[in-house]
Amino acid sequence: MTDTLRLATRGSDLALRQAGTVRDALSSRRRDVELRRVETRGDQIPDELIHRLGRTGAFVRALDEKVLDGDADLAVHSLKDVPTEGMDDMVVAGVPERAPSGDVVVHPDGLGIEDLPAGSVVGTGSLRRTAQIKAARPDLVVEPLRGNVDTRIEKLLAPRLQAEHERRLIASGEARAETAEQGDEGSDGTESDADEPNWDALSDGEGDEDEGDGDEIDEEFETTVDEWFDSLSDLERSAMERKVETEYDAIVLAEAGLRRSELFYEVETTRLPREEFVPAAGQGAIAVTATDPDVIEDVRSAVDHPRTRVAVTVERTILGELNGGCVAPIGVSALVQGEHVHTRVRVLSTDGTEEVADTRDLPIRSHAKAAEEFAADLADRGAADLIEAAREEAGADE
User: Fold this and answer.
1) Closest to 295 in 3D by CA, of 8, 142, 73
2) What is the model's pTM?
C-alpha cells in the first residue's frame, strides 16, 4: 500500500464534493489522499437516460476498474449507483453518515407536487420518480431530464428567466428603439408618420407598457435591466445562457444532491412525503470501494457509520433479492429505530397504475436475513411480476 492513497472519482462537481468528504475523513487519520478524476460511460452519453445505459452501474465500473487495475487504491460513488451484484473483488469498505435520503420538488415559486396545475410538466431522469409522480398525479406530464444537479436546475429556470429578461428589455425601451428605426421609412423609401407609434399615448399609460430608455427605471419593475441582471445568482446567470428543448414547470431531485452541491438554498424546494415517494435504495449515502485489506481497514475505521451501514444493507438486500436493478420503479427506505429497522418498500408498474407496497419493522440483530424474507414475501405478492413487466418494457425500448 502506498503512503498516498489514490482516490478515483467522477469529475462532476457533486462527485468531487463527495470525494472531498472522504479525503477529509482519511486526512484526519493522517493519510494523504490524491483525487484522480475518471470519465465514465455515463459521462460520455449526456443525453441518454440512466436506465437505458445498458446495465446498473454506468457511473461505477469505470472507477472500480481503476482500483482493480492498480491505478487507484479506492473509489467513491453515490451508493444508489452501486450494483447489488457483480462487484467482483470490490468491497464496500466504508459508508459515511447518510445525508437526507428523500426527494424534493424544485419549483420557481415553491409549489409542492399537490399544488401543481393539471398538465404541468415535471422533469426527472428516474424510472422510480416517474412512476411515483404518475401514481400521485396522473394529470401531470412527466418528461425526461438528465445532467448534473446544476444543469437540471438551469434547465428549469432558463425559460422563465429568459422571458423575464425580454419583458424588462421591452419595458425599458431598448426593444422600442429597434421598432422606431424600422418604422422611420415608409414603403416608398420616404419618411412616414402613418406607421409611427403614438409615443405620447404610450407614455401616458395607453397601449403597451414601454417607457423610458435603457438607463431609466421602469415603474413596473423598479430596477433597470442591468440592475436586475446584476442581482441574479451565478446559477441564474448560467441558466440565462442555456438553450432548452423542453420547458419544465417543476423538477424532482434528491435532497442530498442539492445539499452536497450547496444549491439547496439557491432554489425553492418542497419535500415529497416519504410514505408515498419512497427513495431509491442507498439514496443519500456514499460508498467507498477498495480491494486491498489494509486500505479497507483504514477506510472502515475512518468513515464507516454503523447506523447508516445497517440501513443501506437492508435496502440493498431487498433490492438485490427483488432483482430489479434500475430497470423497474422500486423504492426502498430503511431507518434504524432502536432494536428495529423500520423498512418501507414500494414497487410500481412503469405507468404508476399498479403497485405492491408494504412496511415492516425488521429486527436489527438479523436485519440482512429479515430483509431477504421481506423481499421474498413482496415478490410472491406480485412485485416479481411488476419487475418482470418493467424488464420486458426496457428490452422492447432498446
Assistant:
1) 73
2) 0.83
